[in-house]
Amino acid sequence: FKTQTNDELNVSLKQPGSLASFVASRYTFGEHNAIGTPESLKSITQADITKFYRESYKPESAVLIFAGDISSEKANALAKKFFGTWKKTSQKLVKEVPQIPDDSKGMIVISNLPIIQRILVIDLPNSGQAAVTYAKKLSEGRVSCNGNKCATDETFYPSAVANTVLGGGYSARLNSEIRIKRGLSYGASSNLASRSSQTNLLARAQTKNVSAAEVAELVAAEIGKLGSTNVETTELTPRQLTLTGAFGNSLETTDGLAAKLVELYTFGLSADELNSYMTSVRNVSAEQVKNFASANLNGGDIIIVGDAKTFMDDLKKRFPTQKIEVIAASDLDLNRDDLRKTAMPDGKSKPKS
After folding, report:
1. In this predicted model, what pLDDT tens digit does every residue of 190-232 receive, in sequence order?
2. Does residue 120 sit in helix, strand or coil?
3. Is residue 31 domain-resident?
4. Is 336 a domain residue?
5. Which of 70, 186, 285, 293 gives a 20 to 30 Å CA spacing to 207?
6. Is 205 inside any structural domain?
7. Domain count, the chain
């Protein structure tokens, strides 16, 4: 299994889009990719797996969800049959939840950050295409909690609608500007990955190497536009319908219903939110979308993975005041915070010549 996973991982690390995601995990989000790295996979032992299982797989932190034509009596009988001997541990479960002061609610914060904080180029010579990614770590997450009581964070629905306007579908802004109007990519999109107390934004497109700088500029422009002008009703309503339609479709199957319940349980939220989701999405105003975007989306990183010699001059022209860091793919180390294999004696990265 380790060999197969490692082979698949090494293939992914040679693809611009996949490599950009791995880099963003470390560079922007300060996380490790869930798949790991070739080095981390190699270091995992059977003892590590056993230890992780014993520390993490506990009945007091688990939920068993049945969805479909089944009675509570039959569900309980099945639970007892297959999990009845799974006993609670003596160790008390401590669940860390983000604590949000009451007086922070309702505040509108306008970011003073520039749209682009950093630009990082991973030089992948002779790559067929370039992957352009805008990555931003947002300080708000899926929930806010006081004590052990959690509720959906007030930014969740505005963020969902904002993301759908930006890059959530064929007619969203990124795809419209990059693919439909200019034919620079087969598709451009954005997505939000929510944790309890933070959210990771990724906006991305794959394009020809020679158009990488232009695509980066277009992505930055759309990020800025979303936080500076209100979305017109003629655009906002269809984007909201995209969200509510997808949500409704997901509940039409037992698998989809169970998946939504798993999400709510994971974040400590009530199943009642299934009934209020569509109304909450429809109630998001254009002003809320703009306020969310202006407070949260600026200050991200542009990460470009591709053949640097074909787009660096254009990139410097389009971002003349921006420092651009370049790391050769052959020098990349995803296990290090500075992403470089070679470091100076004082711990600082060796600059690229």
Report:
1. 999 999 889 999 999 999 999 999 999 999 999 999 999 999 9
2. strand
3. yes
4. no
5. 293
6. yes
7. 1
